[in-house]
Amino acid sequence: MRTGSGFVDDDGYLNASAKKTAALENAEVIAVRKRFPDPKNCAELEGTMQAIDAYIESIDKARLTARGAAQKNQANAQSKAAGIRRSELVRISSILGCNVQRAEAEAAAQAAELREVTESVKAVKGAGGSRTMDYVIYGVVGIAVLGVIYLVARRA
Question: 24-50 pLDDT, tens per residue?
């Protein structure tokens, strides 16, 4: 099949209105970028990612109920534009280092929890607990330490 400007590629399965489809997709990409602007920090990025995920879900529902070629083309263009924007936001996330910040915050929270456990161990030990109770407490603290190490290693 041949369009006005050349042959149609097999991957796109374009028809004679390929220019209209491309223009619609470009307009949708611009609209989605306006709706979900670039975030300035990781907290804003997290909210934007949740919002775009909800938007993609609503588009997918609309695609299932679309009637007629025009509605299906519109829904497909919106879905493609939202996917493009989501991939841009993932790239922004890696540039801002949000995953590293989130992992550091979780490690700090786990370290604080570990400190609380060791303080409680010291308090129980100072109260004159039995030798068996000491071993149980050391075992619990050891398991907690291994859990923290496992989670930090898994995130890295």
Answer: 677 888 888 888 888 888 888 888 889
The whole model's pTM is what?
A: 0.54
Degrees to nearest 5, angle at CA 113 with 136 and 106: 130
Q: Smallest Cα–Cα separation from 75: which of 57, 56, 89, 62?
A: 62
- pLDDT grade for 115, boundaries at 50, 70 and 90: confident
Structure tokens at 54: 């909800």
DSSP state of 37: P
CB atoms within 10 A of CB 102: 14
Type of residue at 151: L
Q: Which amino acid is located at 33 in the chain?
A: R
Tell me the residue length of the chain.
156
CA 57/CA 35 separation, integer angstroms? 16
Q: Is 82 exposed, middle or buried (0-12, 13-18, 19+ CB in 10 A)?
A: buried
